[in-house]
Amino acid sequence: MNLPNRLTILRTLMIPVFLFFLLTDYAGNCSKWIAVIVFILASLTDFLDGHIARKYNLVTNFGKFMDPLADKLLVSSAMIALVGMHRLSSIVAIIIIAREFIISGFRLIASDNGIVIAASYWGKFKTNFQMFMIIMLIIDLGTSTAVMIENVLIVIATALTIISLVDYLVKNKQVLSEGN
C-alpha cells in the first residue's frame, strides 16, 4: 500500500479520535484543543495524500474511492457533532452534506459513462472554508469578534457549497443527458 493510501486510512482512523475528544471532557479543558489538533492533522492529510499521489504518479482506484469518502466522513461527522453541540445550524449541515451526496451520485453516474469529473476550484475553496469554519466553531472563543468571524465563515462556506454544486452540474450536464 502506497503512502497516499496510508494517509487516507490514517485520516479515516483519526475521525473517531477527533469525535471522542470533541464530544467528551476526557482531557478536561484540553479536550477541544486535542480535537482541533486532530482535525487539523486529518485535514492536512487530505492535502498531502492528493499532492503526493499526483506528484509521484501514485494514484490508485482505492485512493480515488477512499480519499473523497474519508473527506466526506471527516467534514460530515464534524458538522453533525457541531449541530448536536448547538454550534452549527442543522440547515447549514444539511445543505453541505446534501451537496456531498449529490456530487457523489453525480460522479458515480459520470464514472459509469466513462467520464471523470475533476475537482473544481470552487470545490477546493468550499473545502477550505468548511475546514476553517469547523476549526473556529470547535475553538469557540466566545468573543464578539470570534462569533462574527464564525458567522461569516458559515455564510461563505454555505454559499461556496451551493456555488460549487451549481458549477459541477452546469459544467457536467452532459452526464445527465438521456443519450448516456
Automatic annotation (TrEMBL):
**What keywords are annotated for this sequence in UniProt?**
Lipid biosynthesis, Lipid metabolism, Membrane, Phospholipid biosynthesis, Phospholipid metabolism, Transferase, Transmembrane, Transmembrane helix
Instruction: Show the PROSITE patterns listed in the entry.
Output: CDP_ALCOHOL_P_TRANSF
Q: Which GO terms describe its molecular function?
A: CDP-diacylglycerol-glycerol-3-phosphate 3-phosphatidyltransferase activity
The places in or outside the cell where this protein is found are: Membrane
Q: Which pathway is this protein engaged in?
A: Phospholipid metabolism; phosphatidylglycerol biosynthesis; phosphatidylglycerol from CDP-diacylglycerol: step 1/2
User: What topology does it adopt in the membrane?
Assistant: Multi-pass membrane protein
What residues form the membrane-spanning segments?
7-27, 33-52, 73-98, 104-122, 152-170
Q: Does the keyword Zinc-finger apply?
A: no
Keyword check for Cytoplasm: no
Q: What class of enzyme is it?
A: transferase
Q: What is its main location?
A: membrane
Reactions listed under catalytic activity: a CDP-1,2-diacyl-sn-glycerol + sn-glycerol 3-phosphate = a 1,2-diacyl-sn-glycero-3-phospho-(1'-sn-glycero-3'-phosphate) + CMP + H(+)
Recorded E.C. number(s)? Answer: 2.7.8.5
InterPro entries in alphabetical order: CDP-alcohol_PTase-I (IPR050324), CDP-OH_P_trans (IPR000462), CDP-OH_PTrfase_TM_dom (IPR043130), CDP_ALCOHOL_P_TRANSF_CS (IPR048254), Phosphatidylglycerol_P_synth (IPR004570)
**Family from the record:** Belongs to the CDP-alcohol phosphatidyltransferase class-I family.
Q: What job does the chain carry out?
A: This protein catalyzes the committed step to the synthesis of the acidic phospholipids.
Name recorded for this polypeptide: CDP-diacylglycerol--glycerol-3-phosphate 3-phosphatidyltransferase
Question: Which organism is this protein's natural source?
Answer: Anaerostipes amylophilus
Task: Give the lineage.
Answer: Bacteria, Bacillati, Bacillota, Clostridia, Lachnospirales
